[in-house]
Amino acid sequence: MTIHNETAHDWPQLLLGWFRTHRRDLPWRTSPRDPYKVWVSEIMLQQTKVEAVRPYYENWLDHFPTVASLASATQEEVLRQWQGLGYYSRARNLHQAVCEVQARYGGKVPDREKDMLSLKGVGAYTAGAVLSIAYGRPVPAVDGNVLRIFSRLYLIEDNILSAKVKKEVTRLAQDVIPDDAPGDFNEALMDLGASICIPRHPRCQECPLVSCCLAHEKGRETELPVRIVKKDKPAVDITVLVVSDRQSWLIHRRPAKGLLASMWEFPNAVGKGNAGLDAAREVLKKAGIRAGSASGPVGTLRHVFSHKVWQMTIYTAPYANGTLLDKEDWQWLPQAGYTQVPWAGPHGKITAIV
């Protein structure tokens, strides 16, 4: 890997000067900085845009304003408040980690990197963000924005998704992070990557670092960073059978581990057409329920995960007979109370279709 080191080492001060004027007004940027609130915001911002996070963050703090309040909540309460943000393992991991903070550290978010990294769901980026922003520790927080900015600043021509590039960028960031303003430095990089040094077409004419950027000097800013294109995600056909009885829907809770763990869904099975309907009816049979003739399809949904795509076809059917054999993971949900359960991915959207 080739790293070009001609970039001026005083660029962090240029960045901080720009940040003082142009910093974004975000609800988690309170003063003084609360490590719990910083932590929550950083977990929510993983794989989710800032504007989408704002209302969820504010609602979350209304329900769980402190470590203690989140630690005392049930997983179902936590998932319900997270519903709509996706990637639900983030919420489960945060809940588990906060319970550990309550038990091991008396409700105080750890201020040492080793302790932060020991918590469920906390990686190097999250630890760096919390420690630098809330505690003033000079720890880098390297995410996609930072990798993109450094690849242009230092003309890094290797795949930024590789471990060796991330390790080298982390080293470079550690070398230049200012001891007196590490949190501002990391947040300034976040803001620069979100508004100026954006993917594909960076706004170099507005960038405070344009005089230090080797990619701009070489006219290669639109070529970088280099990313290896991922393979197409496999598509899975899913047949969903919405069974209703009077004003209630039959719903099922997914297993406690795996994709969308512990979230609620309508009965469904892998397959398409008659084969998919037969498979969905077999799921119902094992639950002790028989449905009447299916109507539909009444709609379709496409839901994209990080590793696959669900192509969902939705049918409706009336309850015919039977009694639920498992009343813990199956239930009749009053239609008027559809917001009272944490829905698995796209299943909440089905309530608007049927």
UniProtKB/TrEMBL annotation:
This is Adenine DNA glycosylase. Its EC number is 3.2.2.31. Belongs to the Nth/MutY family. GO terms for molecular function: 4 iron, 4 sulfur cluster binding; 8-oxo-7,8-dihydroguanine DNA N-glycosylase activity; adenine/guanine mispair binding; metal ion binding; oxidized purine DNA binding; purine-specific mismatch base pair DNA N-glycosylase activity. Its cofactor is [4Fe-4S] cluster. PANTHER family: ADENINE DNA GLYCOSYLASE. Signal peptide: none annotated. Adenine glycosylase active on G-A mispairs. MutY also corrects error-prone DNA synthesis past GO lesions which are due to the oxidatively damaged form of guanine: 7,8-dihydro-8-oxoguanine (8-oxo-dGTP). It catalyses: Hydrolyzes free adenine bases from 7,8-dihydro-8-oxoguanine:adenine mismatched double-stranded DNA, leaving an apurinic site. GO terms for biological process: base-excision repair; mismatch repair. InterPro entries: A/G_AdeGlyc_MutY, DNA_glycosylase, HhH-GPD_domain, HhH_base_excis_C, HhH_motif, MIG/MutY, MutY_C, NUDIX_hydrolase-like_dom_sf. Binds 1 [4Fe-4S] cluster. Residues 44-195 form the HhH-GPD domain. It comes from the Bacteria. Keywords: 4Fe-4S, DNA damage, DNA repair, Glycosidase, Hydrolase, Iron, Iron-sulfur, Metal-binding.
